[in-house]
Design goal:
Structural class: alpha/beta
Radius of gyration: 28 Å
CATH architecture of the largest domain: Alpha-Beta Barrel
CATH superfamily of the largest domain: Aldolase class I
CATH topology of the largest domain: TIM Barrel
Shape: elongated
Bound molecules: 3-methyl-2-oxobutanoic acid, zinc ion
Number of domains: 3
Number of strands: 16
Distance between the termini: 40 Å
Amino acid sequence: MRIRIFDTTLRDGEQTPGISLSPDQKLTIAKKLDALGVDAIEAGFPVISEGEFKAVKMITSEGLSCDVCGLARANKKDIDAAADAGLNYIHAFIATSDIHLKYKLKLTRDQALEKAIEAVEYGKSRGLQVEFSAEDATRTDRDFLKKVFGEVAKAGADRIDIPDTVGYATPEYIAEITKDAIDATHLPVSLHCHNDFGLAVANALSGIRAGAQCAHVTINGIGERAGNASLEEFAMALQCLQWDQKYETGIKSELIYETSRFISKLVGVQVQPNKAIVGDNAFGHESGIHTHGVLSNPLTYEPISPELVGRKRWLQVGKHAGIHGMNAMLEEYGITPTEEQSKQILGQVKVLGDLGKQVTDVELLSIASEVLGEAGIKRIVHLTGFSVSTGIGTMPYAFVKLNIDGEDFIGTDYGVGPVDAALNAIQKITGKISEIKIKDYGLASISGGSTALCEVTVRIEDAGRNKVSAKAIGEDIVTTSVQAVIDGINRIMLKKILKEKLAKN
Ligand code: KIV
Ligand code: ZN
């Protein structure tokens, strides 16, 4: 069965406290959502501001493949603003629960019903497709809700939506009122579930199981308060869980992670690390038992392959680590310790873990190089020459000579300072070999005075989204920065070569 994905990141998602988007930002997100394969986007609430109106107009003019919808209260002004913004599809709503009628709208049930009918009729008279929502449906008297849905269907509504406005419903109750809505209208029904009790996705799925055809969702589950049902969880649950029938969506699952990160950055709301599908830890393994299992067959501790949603698995060592996982991580960098050396490295990892320290790949590799000595660490990138010049009235300039896998390369470049010039020169060389980018650069001073030691940490990424970190400590900021970057490049290249070797075997 084909399930429709109605994305409301640009409307309910933007109602997340702290989020406010410019028209250009909204258009950029709309294009991303369209590329992801959503069936409809709720572009905004045109009547609320000039900028919102402009954003919706820009989105409706863009010629996207998906349907574009806009929110309107059950009144002529809102519906006119939506139509004037170029929309031919509106999401019209009015609250129907007694608590909203009494304290917010100050209307009787009959008055609210009348407004709902009038809004649908007016929307239709303006040639719009109308999806009708009974706000706070799940706290609305069940018979009254059925009556409202039946009457708006008679008035010409094209679709019915059931909002669980304060996330108050149980999956069982959502199933019951979904069936009521279908019986009363014979129209396509959507669910709009909020996550106040962490049940948004479960509730949306329950509605689908009861016969609904669509769910309103947002990227990363952003939205009012605890948010809305998250697109990535809903779509992947439909696609991957064991149902008694096959569900399909138009979502290009391999774009999920990239879209999630893009939107998280743009709206400034971080994704919690343990969030399903898109959280940092969703495909990460630390404990010895789990990494051992995953290394012999990833399905032991992963319900789906990370690549399905555009991600990569990662392993980390810590106090729960086992020898297999740790050796697998070291192997990624071409390091193969003996049994005795492995035990020593793992012992030191566990000491750090017991001290409450996180053991990143940087720490693991520095422990390994202590135990194995420099000779035990494979190097394919060697710094064979380096100089920088800087001063007043002259632009900082760097010369770098590298030997990569036996071949000599020379790079020169300018920069805003000597470190920048050196890193630019290095990237000029590595850019010729493979696309490597320095994503983060951190500098800390370890002790005081002009002879203080500095610590440089870098994060490097290649075109295949392999990421490594590297750290160097030294007296001179420029040389230490160059050393950290060269170490990082060495690691990422080793990782790549080993992966290619493994793929060939
Ligand atoms: O949660 C809600 O009830 C809404 C309405 C506007 C439908 O977002
Ligand atoms: Zn909502």
